[in-house]
Write a structure and sequence with these properties.
Length: 281
Amino acid sequence: MPTRARAWILGLCSVAFLATTAGFGPSGPGAKVSEEQLEYSKKLYGEGEEAMAAGNYDLALEKYREGYRYAPHLHVFTFNIASAADATGDCRTAQTYFQMFVDLVPEHPKRKEATKRLETLREECKFDAETATLNTTPEGDGEAPGGSSRESRKQREATRAMNDALAELRLAQRTYETAKGKYPDVKPFARAARRKKKHWKKLHKLATGLGVELDDRGPPDVDLADNAKRACREAESQEKRVAAAMEKVLEHYDDPKAYRLVNKILSGADRRDRPAFDACS
């Protein structure tokens, strides 16, 4: 990344977040977020800032993303995520989260500058995509760089991401429903099963509304652990897979409704179910 662009990111990142620190608190859109979660979110933000200042942009990206999951009502985190991704050279993620910032944060002192950066990224990402197509298209394929093959590939990736996310939610739901029958004293299984069932229905409805071609993978096979603690550990790992699948969905669907729903699912996985399974493992 050019030094000028990196300096722009570092200068904006702190200002963007600090402009919303008044939003930290158990009221308004974040009323369901506990004080402990808010404090942890602020801690992660601080660690992200330190990583950005040290030039460790990958770590900063990780910290900002986790911070957003713990305070999903603080949409300004999307700016920090975009800035860190931009610094790593991840054009697709940077563009996605800058667009989320513009869509979800209607009033902000740095909105104009963020919008300008987004416009630049659109061109840079287009160039990167065309270069990737040029470098990967076999000779004699007959498809011009930037042609319909790139669009169809992007569409296939988006469709696969949505179907994978639905599959992970369905697997989690069925696993937890089986586990609650075998280990009825372990309460997190029942709560997580209900949440995953609800989230699957909402994501399926969203996908249908977006015109996504959904595949019928059939009911997933469930291989349940032979003791409760191990089942909890495996469930914790499943929550990580759910979160990873949702991150992929965010990369491919530029839609405010998708942002809100997917971040809600991420929040449920990272702030509720995964910690609960960690506690019982």
